[in-house]
Amino acid sequence: MPLAETTEGGGGQGQLGLTPDEPIRRGHAHSVPDRVVVVQRPEGPGGPGAPTTPTFAADEACCQAGAVRPRVRYTGTPAGRVAWSASGTGPALLCDSGWITHLVAQRELGAFGDVVDRLAERFTVIRYDKPGCGLSDRDRFDLTFEGQVAAAMAVADAAGAGRFRLFGASQGGQLAAAIAARHPERVEALVLYGTCASGRDLAPAAVRDSVVALVRAHWGLGLRALAEAFVTDPSPEEVAAFARFQRDSASADVAARLLEVYYGTDIRGVLPSVRARTLVLHREGDTGTPFELGREVAALVPGATLVPLSGSSHLYYHGDWRSVVEPLLEFLGEDAERGPRLTARELEVAELVAQGLTNQSVARRLGVAPRTAESHVENIRRKLGVRSRAQVAAWVAERRRDR
């Protein structure tokens, strides 16, 4: 099944339909605040600088909910080497926030950091810079839709997320839906915000071409028209902040190419194949992507729930961000609360694993054969959808807090 189709021409009514991550207030391309740790490990399976052993626990030491010291890691992907980070503890939540990204600067912008911290109270939030953007490699990369999907899956693998929940906003929503359709065995639940099924529906062909030309010619120069695509009546400070973010997140050519890919992607044939529980969030007055396009997405995904939101900002972290995050948490929490069913013995073994005991030590403690202990641990990993003992320990810690 193809991930998506590329379409040309046509188009209905709408605005520009763009979505950056957030306007940057400080920093430069590839610059990292002092309190941020960038980790580049020796060459591993993912390529130079990729983590040799995927684990959430190492990230959590620096990225507990409420903290702002993300460990930036790198992994090789089919689309180029990509920067990623994980924060919080609990079930994995892979996030794609849209068009252009800067992994470190995002946390300092508007309410973006508040959104991540709120999500990290319940989940291990996995974020990454798109190929060619932010802290990811900028010299060799693949910006095609298929390349972006491959990069996202490589990040999930590097993070050790066997199964995960998935959040995608705007262009990232198309990506998230395609991943859910292609990998139903790995996606437990899907949340889409402010997205569309076909990029050509965002604006007529002539308008789409003019927007791409505008990006190439005026990228990072503070053009008010670009800021207005995301925020209603932006202040001069917001326009200037968005311009700085443009300069730091991507080159004009990369931004324009990513926009062309968005405009040319049609996932209407993919959405009916999504099997994961799906929530579609969309602001009724969205200035970037008309509400009707979000309603179409919800109608095409079997069993999807559509939640109309008040407001007009296309950016979910601008304006009343809590009205976006709370239904998202409630929806994902329904799945998390049902959770995996471990037997009494498996729960006992999971507690011992969380204490740092090896399989041999677990066997001695329980008076069972080492092979039996090993089987229990493998069953626990399979049921939790995790790959490492550190992730089992994180699940145990989350379970204790919820009691």
TrEMBL record:
CDD domains linked to this entry: LuxR_C_like
Q: Which UniProt keywords apply?
A: Hydrolase
Superkingdom is Bacteria
SUPFAM superfamilies noted in UniProt = alpha/beta-Hydrolases (SSF53474), C-terminal effector domain of the bipartite response regulators (SSF46894)
Entry GO MF terms: hydrolase activity
Region: Disordered, residue numbers: 1-33
Q: Which residues form the signal peptide?
A: none
Keyword Hydrolase in annotation = yes
Q: Which PROSITE patterns match?
A: HTH_LUXR_2
Every copy of the HTH luxR-type domain together lies at 335-400
Q: Which residues form a coiled coil?
A: none
Database matches in Pfam families: Abhydrolase_1, GerE
Q: Identify the InterPro entries for this entry.
A: AB_hydrolase (IPR050471), AB_hydrolase_1 (IPR000073), AB_hydrolase_fold (IPR029058), Sig_transdc_resp-reg_C-effctor (IPR016032), Tscrpt_reg_LuxR_C (IPR000792), WH-like_DNA-bd_sf (IPR036388)
Question: What is the designated name of this protein?
Answer: Alpha/beta fold hydrolase
Task: Look up and give the organism this protein is from.
Answer: Fodinibacter luteus
